[in-house]
Amino acid sequence: MANTRQSTKRAQQAQKRQTRNSLVKSTTRTAVKNAITAILSKDTQAAQAAYTAAVKALSKAASKGSVPAGRASRKISRLTLFVKKNLPQVLR
């Protein structure tokens, strides 16, 4: 329990950040999962759209600080390699 005005405010700010970060992380995970599903379904149009959305979501999460930049970069890199291996025409 917060005892001072400052600690009360800090607790509220932390709660706000936690809510925002969990929402961003959840959205990002969903975008990556949708991209992988679309790539495995071999649908070029859907895969391209889903891949672009996933990369955008990861980059945005990193820029907002919800996800560390290195982790986002690693996930983008691995997703790109996955696309190149399974559906190379998406990246053309």
List keywords for this structure.
92 residues, mainly alpha, Methane Monooxygenase Hydroxylase, Chain G, domain 1, 3 helices, 82% helix, 0% strand
Structure write-up:
- This protein has 92 residues and is mainly α.
- It has a single domain (5-91), classed as Up-down Bundle (Methane Monooxygenase Hydroxylase, Chain G, domain 1).
- The chain contains 3 helices and no strands.
- The chain has helices spanning 5-40, 44-64, 69-86.
- Helix 1 (5-40) runs antiparallel to helix 2 and helix 1 (5-40) runs parallel beside helix 3 (69-86).
- The longest helix is centred in the N-terminal third of the chain and has 36 residues, at 5-40.
- It is elongated and about 60 Å long.
- It starts with a helix and ends in a 6-residue tail after the last helix.
- The relative contact order is 0.13.
- The mean pLDDT is 95.
Ends distance: 55 Å
At the first level of CATH, the class is Mainly Alpha
Helix-strand sequence = HHH
Q: Report the C-alpha radius of gyration, rounded.
A: 17 Å
Strand count: 0
Number of domains: 1
Secondary structure elements and pairings:
Blueprint (H helix, E strand, L loop, with lengths): L4 H36 L3 H21 L4 H18 L6
Helix pairs in contact: 1-2, 1-3, 2-3
Give a short synopsis of this structure:
This protein is mostly helical and 92 residues long. It is built from three helices and no strands.
